From TrEMBL, chains A, B:
Organism the protein comes from: Hevea brasiliensis
EC top class, as a word: oxidoreductase
InterPro entries: FAD/NAD-bd_sf, FAD/NAD-binding_dom, NDH-2, NDH2-like_C
This enzyme's EC code(s): 1.6.5.9
Swiss-Prot/TrEMBL keywords: FAD, Flavoprotein, Membrane, Mitochondrion, Mitochondrion inner membrane, NAD, Oxidoreductase, Peroxisome
Protein name as catalogued: NADH:ubiquinone reductase (non-electrogenic)
Organism taxonomic ancestry: Eukaryota, Viridiplantae, Streptophyta, Embryophyta, Tracheophyta
FAD/NAD(P)-binding domain location: 74-404
Ranges for region Disordered: 49-72
Coiled-coil portions: none
């Protein structure tokens, strides 16, 4: 450590105007000419900046060409969710180069995302950079992460079309192509709105870190605005009415966190408006429909007890400050969170690949996309083809993670057998197909309580837990699943500080 | 703790379809009719929503009227920087109600802000909510924090005009007035651009948390974009050229943090582009001009050693991808940070109050604004009037903090003497005037090195330190100054994790 040498380099010196000191500088002197170097590595020659660009359409640039037979084969992974990241983690980078294309450079630890909306956890504690999951991405000369969206496939030529994500600044979006030896489509799904008007404009989903950030900012904004002098009672109630649509685990967990936040933090820190804040959970059927009957009733009772209103209804229309239910009743809101499940994204719909029931990319038992070579699909974007005789698996982190793990082992096996290059896997014995075994479902419902349903399916027998023990099991289970030690550490620290100091309310 | 009762409430249950279990539910049952309550507290009567509003101009609402003689007098504080927050912390809330008006609900711990741009520290660790600094704000019935801007003063009627900050959503901005007994103007200053074209559009300042967030996002974006296939060498160099204009402590600290980030993190995690990233610090005169000559030379040498190019130059024009210096040379950049000092904000300029040299609000030795009653000004927005014979103090956190503390003691004294109400302080003996004693300056320069200049002024004699010991002194000094224990704890944790795991590179 170089800085240790500086440990003793300190000095008590007098004013610089004292000539005796100036003559013998104790630290050091450098000639001013030396200090201000020129910017010689830059040219002002305009011709160099004259790339053949047009701001109207993205510029077509080169890309990564096909690998040569002596080179490592290239696995291209589209997406950085549970499926794609688990796959990348497991890929043997001695066998393959890995190229990931995704609009975000991190994986979101989705089971804990709801906790970040109210500050129980911090945003960064639930985001895991891809480079930490698979370090080769940032080190190996042939492995890359590209901040880009996939815009299309050319399976005939083993090519992926991409376009950079630029957030509108710094430079125009650029198009480029990547040749693959093996392609893994792990593009996930999209929040479904059922075509209801106004959902995309006025509701916030809860799938990415920026959604959680927006919810937190808006919640704090509404808490502060409702305190402004002269605001009517009606307007105060509207601003502080948090409506959650969708009673699945995400909706329930967010409602639970929100009511915890209200009971523990709002009452103390927003004493002026504490009686105006309410949470309403709207669900067309019943909440947590995949859970054991008794757990569901327990959740219902606990949520009701902690102040969450459960409303059975179907949303017909969403306006900027109110939503309208099927029966015509109006529900004014200040914050609207939408979590009614997911469906295939427009890109997945547009791909010219076989589809499973429900419009996902159709796969066989080895997670391959039949009819094309070297293409696999995992996670929420994929589903078993009807011809496999298997049902489409639910859109759960657990399924995606298991598929990513299975496929990384399969690809490593193919690579070791010398089938890593394009069209090279034809004679490789694939071994056992992918079999999904459900390990149970968990959902937290606030107030140090959670549900754990360890049954393998809705009809099976098994163990269900509810209450504090489940909460403890739930927290521990998640703590050991958060991928890096850094984030495990931060999650524990966040929970501890929330417990001791309460949640942070800085609106940054 | 109510949840302890749930500790043992768990059960191993069989499938819900088993009739023997359904008959004796182990957890609990609730009638569905009971579960789904109605939304009776909402009315669908349109007339109630028909506030007399116009979206074109903010609605004028009521506000807080004058306090009555038997009520606690009200201190209105404009701003939530070092001066305003230190004042609020010191105000005796048994004597006064405190009302704070500011567009942000937290104080930014500015000396550590540069560290958050590259992830050495987290954003929340340097933001202290006002409600944690002065808990009465959120609890006392007469104390408030308003998320609003001051738009003008009516000193004749002891009134502050305000308008809510709404970020453009949820509701239209609203106007309201607040009557004050004592008014403390602590509005701070604004980054100066010297009228140079393009600075506001293309450069990022470094004064608020959202600035640091933007810098971090843009830096990570550029690192990723420069890795896209087909990008020219020239473009790569531009994207990864970080230019800092202004060689004061903020500019130097940010440059130091940036070069630390490059040396420790970029080299490892962005191995593909590590040779393209450079930092240039542009300063018209010399860097750290307020520091001891020898410390300055030491800083110059250290920064140069860690790869920061120091360029002497004056910026003439700023374009989206390059800036132009006075001598005509062009400097392409990917990230431009501007920190060339501060000047009075448009609001401060517009106030019809006496002004100090430099256009700040003029104050006397007791920090009062003469010619009006019950108005005080502290921090960067204020300066001693020429008539006091004192020089205007530098725009430093140290000055603001000291003035806030002094004024809180003065106001408490006035309050105890019964002079808290408007026009009530005329006969109160104010005691000693405010005297500023400079305790020294500190600046970190990266690589575990910092400068500490303990001289009271540029001409005085005193102690100067440079190197690791100073870095240690600097870190410790700041750790004990971060206001809450929560944030002290988080700063220490952040530093420790940065040291162990490196900086986080999730772009969220």
């Amino acid at each position: 450590m170089a800085w240790v040498g500086n440990l003793i380099r300190f000095s008590a010196i007098k004013s610089a105007s004292s000539p005796s000191i100036t003559a013998k500088p104790l630290i050091l002197t450098t000639s001013p000419n030396f200090l201000f170097s020129s910017l010689s590595h830059f040219t002002t020659d305009a011709s160099l900046h004259n790339h053949n660009r047009s701001s109207a359409s993205p510029t077509q640039y080169g890309g990564l060409g096909p690998t040569k037979p002596k080179e490592k084969p290239r696995v291209v992974v589209l997406g950085s969710g549970w499926a794609g990241c688990r796959l990348m983690k497991g890929i043997d980078t001695k066998l393959y180069d890995v190229v990931c294309v995704s609009p975000r450079n991190h994986m979101v630890f989705t089971p804990l995302l709801a906790s970040t909306c109210v500050g129980t956890l911090e945003f960064r504690s639930v985001a895991e950079p891809i480079a930490r999951i698979q370090p080769a991405i940032s080190k190996e000369p042939g492995s890359f992460y590209f901040l880009a969206n996939c815009t299309g496939l050319d399976t005939h030529n083993h090519l992926v079309h991409c376009q950079t994500v630029t957030d509108g600044y710094t430079m125009d979006p650029r198009k480029f192509d990547i040749s693959y030896d093996k392609l893994v489509i792990a593009l996930g799904a999209e929040a479904s709105t059922f075509g209801i008007q106004g959902v995309k404009e006025h509701a916030i989903f809860l799938r990415e870190v920026h959604h959680a950030q927006e919810i937190r900012r808006k919640l704090l904004l509404n808490l502060m605005l409702s305190d402004v002098p002269g605001i009517s009672e009606e307007e105060k109630r509207r601003l502080l009415h948090c409506v959650v649509v969708g009673g699945g685990p995400t909706g329930v967990e967010f409602s639970g966190e929100l009511s915890d936040f209200i009971m523990r933090d709002v009452r103390q820190r927003y004493a002026h408006v504490k009686d105006y804040i309410h949470v309403t959970l709207i669900e067309a059927n019943e909440i947590l429909s995949s859970f054991d009957d008794r757990l569901r009733r327990y959740a219902t009772k606990q949520l009701t007890k902690s102040g969450v209103r459960l409303v059975r209804g179907i949303v017909k229309d969403v306006e900027p400050q109110k939503l309208i239910l099927n029966d015509g009743s109006e529900v004014p809101y200040g914050l609207l969170v939408w979590s009614t499940g997911v469906g295939p994204s427009p890109l997945v719909k547009s791909l010219d690949l076989p589809k499973s029931p429900g419009g996902r990319i159709g796969i066989d038992e080895w997670l391959r996309v039949p009819s094309v070579q070297d293409v696999f699909a995992i996670g929420d974007c994929s589903g078993f083809l009807e011809s496999t005789g298997k049902t489409v698996l639910p859109a759960l982190a657990q399924v995606a993670e298991r598929q990513g793990k299975y496929l990384s082992i399969l690809l490593n096996k193919i690579g070791r057998a010398g089938g890593g290059h394009a069209y090279g896997a034809k004679d490789v014995e694939l071994g056992d197909p992918f079999v999904y075994r459900h390990l149970g479902s968990m959902a937290t419902i606030g107030s140090f309580k959670a549900l754990v349903d360890l049954r393998q399916s809705k009809e099976a027998k098994g163990i269900s837990l509810a209450g504090f023990i489940s909460w403890f099991v739930w927290r521990s289970a998640y703590l050991t699943r958060v991928i890096s030690w850094r984030n495990r550490f931060y999650v524990a620290i966040n929970w501890a500080t929330t417990f001791v100091f309460g949640r942070d309310i800085s609106r940054i």
